[in-house]
Amino acid sequence: MLGFVRVDNESLVACLGDPQRAVAAYHELLRRGEDAVGAVRDGLGDGNPAVREGCCRLLDHLVDTDSMDLLIAMADDPDARVRTAAFHALACDRCKGDTCAPGAGQVLEPALRHLASDPDPHVRARAAELVGKFAHTEVRAAKALETSHAQDPSPAVRKKAGWYAPGGAIYERTVPRTLP
Fold first, then answer.
1. Alpha-carbon distances of 75 from 91, 97, 131, 147, 161, rounded to whole Å
2. Using alpha carbons only, what angle is made at residue 94 by residues 91 and 96, rounded to the nearest 5 degrees?
3. Which of the residue ranges 5-9, 18-22, 29-33, 162-166 would you say has the lowest mean pLDDT?
4. Does pLDDT of 96 surpass 90?
5. What is the pLDDT of residue 179?
């Protein structure tokens, strides 16, 4: 099956760090769904950043309430690719189905911190997406996006922050509607 010597969940998680096997292992773990979540959670502590990144990407689809704190902690991983994947997973509602997304009390502080000072522009851009989810309800989020839009050294981050900041295209499209 799949051309792997071992196909238990832990072995497949380890294969996320092997460029030759990562894609097949990712898809098989995703197919296994809930049955693989424990091994995926454990993989967040792996010494190989590619494994941690793959586990963050898997939790984007497989996240459950027990995994949320672990995923939030990955926002402070030493590897920028892992932080980028963690922020995407925390911000993306599309991949999660019926699972509740984390609230501002859980994720806004790390997102604001990384938006303001992460050395990697990809991480700052993903942090802008997460901060943008709270731009309508949290004054600090709106202000941070406006600051990033005006001052970030990366043109791509300035552009993305502008989309989520008050007056931006995504901000306007996501204005909460009141019922008549």
1. 12, 22, 13, 21, 18
2. 85
3. 5-9
4. no
5. 67
* Among 148, 86, 152, residue whose Cα is nearest residue 123: 86
pLDDT score for 152: 98
Q: Report the pLDDT averaged over residues 76-99.
A: 84
| Distances from the Cα of 6 to the Cα of 47, 103, 157, angstroms | 20, 38, 42
Beta-strand ranges (E) seen in the chain are none
The letter for the amino acid at 72 is I
pTM of the model: 0.90
- Reduced to 3 states (helix: H, G, I; strand: E, B; else coil), residue 148 is helix
Rounded distance, CA 43 to CA 52, Å?
A: 6
pLDDT at site 98: 47
Q: Which two structure tokens, joined as six digits, stand for 140?
A: 């600090």
Cβ–Cβ < 8 Å for 79, 119: no
d(CA 39, CA 142) in angstroms, rounded, equals 37
CB 169 within 8 A of CB 176: no
Helix (H, G, I), strand (E, B) or coil at 138: coil
